[in-house]
Specification:
Elements lengths: L5 E6 L2 E6 L10 H16 L5 E6 L3 E3 L14 H20 L4 E5 L2 E3 L1 H7 L3 E5 L3 E3 L13 H9 L1 H10 L2 E3 H7 L4 E3 L4 H9 L7 H14 L4 H18 L2 H11 L6
Parallel strand pairs: 2-3, 3-5, 4-6, 5-7, 6-8, 7-10
Antiparallel strand pairs: 1-2, 8-9
Helix pairs in contact: 1-2, 3-4, 4-5, 8-9
Length: about 260
């Protein structure tokens, strides 16, 4: 597929999707979402990839839905529903991707941009990033999962503050709240990203996929049921992949495993 609204890059076992509508602050148009979905599917099918990075070109990570392009949808319920279905399908794609997904955010990270960040497994933010939901500021409510993912990430009280006041956090504040993994000066974002993805390059892709899947599925289970899920998954993984036996053999031989 030819990409114009995003860029897909692959290098040294890491894929990067760059939102590429800088003049529109990387707003999520239907066309961008279509390309984004295709790129995530490409990453899913490429067994050489151990991690995916999502980032934005220009002054923003993502300013949310393209309200100008979608203006007519607010008078057409079926069209609006199709757009929301498209947004949420992309976000679930990220969550179901069998490798860690890292959001690298700077500038504006608002509304749908926040929802995109929340669908990633980890986030690194520029200290001066502007992060918030802000739907309520325009008489709207979230449609891409903020009411569900945000309380799971930072707790109900903090989530309700952001959802109901429309407040923006700096990247530094977002790190304090646990909304992002860490915040760093904007000019060191790439350096911080490399420190995070570098260890992933040598890991087992099936192992990464099993860990991510079980961790996500266990969030809505009791501790006992979650541990049972993990035990079952452990046995399934060991008997369906050659990587555990290679890892054990490498440990015995005091060498790095070859995955």
């Amino acid at each position: 597929m030819e990409y114009t609204n995003i860029k897909l890059e692959k290098e040294n076992a890491v894929a990067t999707i760059r939102l590429n509508r800088p003049d529109a602050l990387n707003a999520l148009s239907p066309e961008l979402l279509q390309e984004f979905s295709a790129a995530v599917a490409d990453v899913r099918d490429d067994q050489s990839i151990k991690a995916l990075v999502v980032r934005g070109e220009g002054r923003a990570f993502c300013s949310g839905a393209d309200l100008i392009a979608m203006d007519a949808a607010f008078a057409d319920q079926s069209r609006l529903s199709r757009y929301l279905d498209q947004v949420n399908a992309c976000l679930f794609q990220l969550e179901e991707l069998p490798v860690p997904v890292i959001a690298l955010v700077h500038g504006f990270v608002l509304a749908g941009g926040l929802e995109l960040m929340l669908a990633c497994d980890m986030a690194i933010a520029a200290e001066d990033a502007r992060i918030g939901d802000q739907h309520v500021n325009f008489g709207l409510m979230p449609g891409g999962g903020s009411t569900q993912r945000l309380p799971r990430r930072i707790g109900m009280q903090r989530a309700m503050e952001l959802l109901t006041t429309g407040r923006w956090l700096s990247g530094a504040e977002a790190a304090e709240w646990g909304l992002v993994r860490r915040a760093v000066p904007a000019d060191t974002l790439d350096q911080e990203l490399e420190a995070l993805v570098s260890p992933l390059r040598t890991k087992s892709r099936p192992g990464l996929g099993w860990i991510k899947s079980v961790a996500q599925r266990g969030q809505d289970l009791t501790l006992r049921d979650g541990v049972a899920l993990e035990s079952l998954a452990f046995a399934q993984y060991v008997f369906t992949s050659s990587h555990p036996s290679e890892g054990i053999q490498a440990f015995k031989e005091k060498r790095q495993p070859e995955f």
